[in-house]
Amino acid sequence: MDLFDSTATLTPIPVEGGELSFLAQLALPIANDEVLARLITETAWRSEVITLWGKQYPQPRLTAWHGEKAYSYSGLTLEPLPFTALQLDILAAVQAATGRRFNSVLLNYYRDGRDSMGMHSDNEPELGSEPAIASVTFGATRTFILQNKLNKRRLQLALNDGSLLLMAGSLQTNWSHGINKSAKVLGPRVNLTFRLIL
Ligand SMILES: O=C(O)CCC(=O)C(=O)O
Ligand SMILES: [Fe+2]
């Protein structure tokens, strides 16, 4: 086996002030396209309105929150729905690949290139000080942008169908991340970020 084959094991991506690692294809019992189709149809997608600096904005994507604990961000408190059977299959694969435990998942549905996520850090208190966050993508490849808060250096990662990105250590303290809109007409993408809520 090729030791540097990122389809087999999580491969570290060296970054200053944080831990980042990537696996091009998570080992799953179900094909990626079937997972995507089921996530789109089986999820109770919500269109949330968020409050930033006292003003209200609709989120430019659909979301759902599942797992064991409630989660609050951007003036929003999400009450959890129980994990679905499909989410538990993905969770098991993510825990096996990362060696870490997670108890909740945020699902984001980018319907096409017009949907996006603004630059942010996942640094809410209930995540603890150095949270591990495992991000799994199905569907269209979108560019994940990371920006170092201190030196402003930018990194771009193409998150492809079936991939796993693990963010850990002090990454959320020192970097922000987001997904820009794309002028290309892209197909749907569903991203799941597994988290351990304390
Ligand atoms: O869709 C993505 O790849 C990013 C998701 C994300 O940053 C989040 O859910 O906090
Ligand atoms: Fe995030």
TrEMBL record:
One of its GO terms (molecular function) is dioxygenase activity. The keyword NAD does not apply. One of its GO terms (biological process) is DNA alkylation repair. InterPro entries: AlkB-like (IPR027450), AlkB-like_sf (IPR037151), ALKBH3 (IPR032854), Oxoglu/Fe-dep_dioxygenase_dom (IPR005123). Residues 101-198 form the Fe2OG dioxygenase domain. It comes from the Bacteria. Keywords: Dioxygenase, Oxidoreductase. This is Alpha-ketoglutarate-dependent dioxygenase AlkB.
